[in-house]
Amino acid sequence: MAVPASFPVKPDAFILTGSFPVISRDPLYLAELTRHGLKPLVITSSAYRERATGQISVSGGPMSAICEIAFVDGDVTIEGAFVAGASATVTAWLAKYTIVGAYAVGDVLAEPTGLLCDRLGLPGPGLLASRACRSKYLQRWYAADLSPRSIVIPAAQRAQVLESTEFDPELAAAIERVGFPAVVKPASRHSSWGVLTVANLPELRHELASYRPHEIVLVEERVSGQEYSVESLVQRGGIVFTSATRKETTQSGERTFVELAHTVPEPAGDVAELLLAANAALLHRLRFADGIAHSEWRVTPDGRAVLMEVAGRTPGDGLMALYHLATGVPLEPQILNIALGQAASYPAPRRYARQVYLEHEPGVLTDVAVDWPGVQPYWVGEGGVWPEIAPGPADDEPALRAVLVLKDQGSKLTELESSDDRAVAFFIDAPSADQLDALERRVRAAITITTRS
To answer: Rounded to an integer, what distance in angstroms lies between the CA atom of residue 148 and that of residue 297?
Structure first.
């Protein structure tokens, strides 16, 4: 009788996806996966090949924990551009590894990651949520009652509009219902890239011509009101933790939208209750199953919560660090617990924390000085790895925790038109909101950004 051939045991592995700078910014994910005894695998855009291979090759560096990395080609302005490359990569990896979980750290590969989780029966946001969270017009489609007035202009229709001397009557009527000023958004980009305000019809036509020929564009009413985000840990369709974050942007008097500050948490009250209720309704509408959701809202003067957009991945900027400062507990282990199907929990904030991006004079960055005892600016540099921003005790005095310089010395600093243009940020926390405001004013006065023309 023939003895059955033995098959090699495939090691358990976990896939992280997203732009490599976002992954390298937060090495705690890799440390946690290693602690779980899992092989970390990474899928990222080919644009980061040189940067990623350089960091992974540094022995003992935080990125050296990556077992394998795959680079996929795609254009973020094209819907589904990364799906084929990501699926081909995972198919090859299945021959070598047992994939036990996957998670999208950034926007770019969130949809392929949702497809991967569905294909392998792993915890994930779900097909609807994974798709809609990467498409601004689908968010308007599924949550019209929570959204601003808007119209979708497909690429072919946009070309017709630009080539004709007059708008199609139905389209003209739809634009009139949206009204001016209006906000123009490309459907698939991220980080406020390409989001602009137009004051009238000629400006709208001018901006429509600036997008790439294949892009789908959303035109919607400009909603006035304070901006917020809501972060939610969701497991098996139930919200495990949720909290509102107050945001400040450049939107006042500007045509662009760039985030300048985040404050965790928004104090409990009518606004917080309004936001959390609207967010819960949105997640139910999208049948969001497992993961972290980051939704963005404006609360109007008449008390409505209006959806700006929603993402099914880690919140951006320094929000992960802010929740660590506010609660004393990092979010990353709980996010991975959800992706692995293990029980997750997270405490309520015990302090107020804020990240502030400083505006700067355009020019060449020469220096950043911080006049604060025990705090020096941390130059993030090419590696892009942020330092650990450790929380203090719950009863600690108001504190400046870190000042990060996100650009290299000698970099050209420009006007703030997208998130990538920001250069310097600081993190603070305090026992109360009033103390946090007072601390921010002191820290702003203590930081000097020097540029030369």
So the answer is: 10
Residues forming a β-bridge with 413 = 363
- Torsion angle defined by CA atoms of residues 184, 187, 190 and 196, in that order, rounded to the nearest 10 degrees: -10
Which residues are bridge partners to 68 per DSSP? 41
pLDDT for the residue 444: 97
Between CA 110 and CA 314 the distance in angstroms is: 10
Is the peptide bond between 186 and the residue preceding it cis, with omega within 30 degrees of 0?
Answer: no
Tokens of 175: 């634009």
**Tokens for 412?**
């050209």
Do 316 and 294 form a contact (C-beta atoms < 8 A)? yes
Half-sphere exposure at residue 319, Cβ-oriented, CA atoms within 13 angstroms = 26
DSSP for 164-180 reads SSS--HHHHHHHHHH-S
The model carries a pTM of 0.90
Q: How many CA atoms lie within 13 A of 432 on its CB side?
A: 3
- pLDDT in the model for residue 7: 63
* CA 193/CA 417 separation, integer angstroms: 8
d(CA 87, CA 43): 10
Farthest-apart Cα atoms in the chain, separation = 83
Long-range Cβ contact pairs of 126-131 (< 8 A, separation 24 or more): 126/286, 126/287, 126/288, 126/289, 126/290, 128/286, 128/287, 129/283, 129/286, 129/287, 129/288, 129/289, 129/293, 129/312, 130/312
CA angle 139, 201, 299 (to 5 degrees): 40
Of 365, 366, 330, give the one whose Cα is nearest residue 346.
330
**Is the Cβ–Cβ distance between 333 and 423 less than 8 Å?**
no
388 Cβ contact list (under 8 Å, min separation 6): none
Q: d(Cα 284, Cα 158) in Å, to the nearest integer?
A: 33
| Both tokens assigned to 133 | 């969270």
CA torsion angle 128 344 83 159 (round to 10): 50
Supply the pLDDT for residue 253.
46
Beta strands in 94-237 (DSSP E): 98-104, 150-153, 182-186, 196-198, 217-221, 226-235
Report whether pLDDT(59) > 50. yes
